[in-house]
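Hi P.,

Sorry for the delay on this. The queue was packed all week, but I finally got your sequence through. Input first:
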Amino acid sequence: MKKLDIIYEDKDILVVNKPAKLLTIADNKELVKTLYHEVREYLHKKKQKVFIVHRLDKDTSGIVLFAKNEKLKKLLQENWYNYKREYIAVVEGHLKEKKGTIKCYLQESKTNQVYVSSNGKGKLAITDYELINSNKSSSLVKINIKTGRKNQIRASMAYLGNPIVGDKKYDSKLNTFKRLALHHTKLEIIHPLRKKELVFISNPPEQFLQAFSK
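Then the structure:
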């Protein structure tokens, strides 16, 4: 098993860097490799428990936070929308506006496709975005989410007309990096028990940045 990429650990929490193409946790009892299994095995050796606080999509890389007790897990989840969650994405084409906020309602089809509702029904999703750089075919974008809906960033950017590179689910025509070009790069929380601010950083994949270095 590949060694966990640990960003931070104390007696209460564990923060790891998830690679792309790895499930955070399985939705069923299938025996598939997941980040949760790797973390549980790691903490089991230290006689510690693990509780998942949030998820990233299988094809998204970056920061994932775990709690080591159930009380802390619940406190973190209760405050989750108050924390700053920043992503870096490479999207197709050029943004019409260099920065903005996408407010929309998301629904899920019978085939588990999340899409922007045209009738205002569904769950409210709020996504802030800002252009960092661009080249001939794509744009490097910083994204902050105010809500945490399934596939929120992917559906919202596709709705804007700029699907994330490598996202076939949302009709991306480019596959520059042979993966989904979305990375959870920064998480800022207030530790519920210690009342201390903690900031976690996971640098974006170098290939994302190199595409805009010229």
